[in-house]
Amino acid sequence: MNIITPTADGSNTLYNETIGEHYHSKHGALQESKHVFIDAGLKFASAGKSEISILEVGLGTGLNFILSFEYCTQNKIKLDYNSIEAFPLTLDVINQTGYAEYVAPSIWNDFTANYDLALIKPQNISPLCILEIPHTTLAEFKADKKFDVIYYDAFSVQHQPEMWSDAMIAHACSFLKPGGTFVTYAITGKLKRAVKANGFTIEKLPGAPGKREMLRAVKALV
Ligand SMILES: C[S@@+](CC[C@H](N)C(=O)[O-])C[C@H]1O[C@@H](n2cnc3c(N)ncnc32)[C@H](O)[C@@H]1O
């Protein structure tokens, strides 16, 4: 059961009773998504590019997706967005988040009109965006392509430690192109070591409000 819960910046998140954790920071869902994934991830990785491919771990409510879709649309960047989701929310729950007010109506409509279909196969949801939501676990996910960016937005290590094991991080990193960018809201010594072991250069960046630091890592070119 997921319960809609307000966060400190006025945006909602969901509280997942089974896991015992919120989908976003209680200090602000919208500001966390913008800070970690859009500003530190997408803007950094898409600078000077006309197309970008993103692999997200955990689509959840789709907040990271709609903000990415809007940014790419505004900046005429072609977006190929794949977001693995083991436990998809219903469209009804997604409509209750209130996130429609944070993006243009066309962005929200293109997302929600294609959500159920994107869980089955890739959808051209606009001339500039393909959305696919593989309904699977990260452990079982396979792809015949590599991505420019990974948004690693799993539940925390306290609540879902298996998502942060060295093997799972290596598996996720294997889907990134050389020179690709891995971003996540979390940062621990173990995570930094796991990412470095896969040939990444790591950066500690200021975290979203409520977190001192976050991790961005760039995969070696060779
Ligand atoms: C922190 S929430 C992600 C929030 C999301 N990015 C958003 O903007 O709403 C973690 C997500 O990972 C999903 N998840 C849990 N276990 C998973 C697994 N093994 N593989 C893929 N996704 C998983 C959850 O269902 C949840 O949607």
TrEMBL record:
Pfam families: Methyltransf_30. Signal peptide: none annotated. It comes from the Bacteria. GO terms for molecular function: oxidoreductase activity, acting on the CH-NH group of donors; tRNA (5-methylaminomethyl-2-thiouridylate)(34)-methyltransferase activity. Gene3D superfamilies: Vaccinia Virus protein VP39 (3.40.50.150). InterPro entries: MnmC-like_methylTransf, SAM-dependent_MTases_sf, tRNA_MNMC2. Residues 142-219 form the MnmC-like methyltransferase domain. PANTHER family: MNMC-LIKE METHYLTRANSFERASE DOMAIN-CONTAINING PROTEIN, SLL0983 PROTEIN. This is tRNA (5-methylaminomethyl-2-thiouridine)(34)-methyltransferase MnmD. It comes from Pedobacter agri.
